[in-house]
Amino acid sequence: MLPVLRVTCDPFSGAAGRITCYKRAVRAAILTAVAALLLAAPAAGAGWSPSAGWLVQARCVHAKEGGWRANTGNGYFGGFQFSAGTWRSVGGKADPAFTHPGAPFTAPPQEQLYRAWLLWKRDGGTWRSWGAVGASCSGD
Known about the structure:
By secondary structure, this protein is mainly alpha-helical. The chain is built from five helices and four strands. The protein has helices spanning about 25-45, 50-65, 85-90, 110-120, 130-140; strands at about 10-15, 20, 75, 80-85. A two-stranded antiparallel ribbon has the order 1-2. A two-stranded antiparallel ribbon has the order 3-4. Residues about 5-15 and about 40-45 have low confidence and may be disordered.
C-alpha cells in the first residue's frame, strides 16, 4: 500500500486541473493584496487608483495603527490613526469621535484608505506622516 500524501498548504486550482500550493508567506501576501484591493474597489470609482504596491503598504500601516473604528482617546482616529486636523486637511468630514472620546470613528474603511492615499500623495508619495510605522511599511 502506498503512503498517503498530505498537502501542508491550501491548494489553489492550477491550469489543466493541477493543484498549486504556495508557501505560507506568499499566500499571506497574496491574501493581503486581494483584501486591500477589495477594500479599495468601492472607492475606485471616485477617481483614485492606488497601485497594488501602495495597497500592500497601506495594509501594513493599518495593521500597525489600529482598527477602522478606533478612538482610544489619544487624539487619533480610525485605521490610519488620523488626527482630526489631518483628516479635515485631506477633505474628511467632521466625525462624532472628534468630540466624544471613546465614540467609534464612523468613516468607512474605503474612505479612510482614500484619505490616506491623498495624504500619502501630498507627502510626495511617502508615508512620512505615519513616522516610524510608515517607514517600516515602505522600506524607507
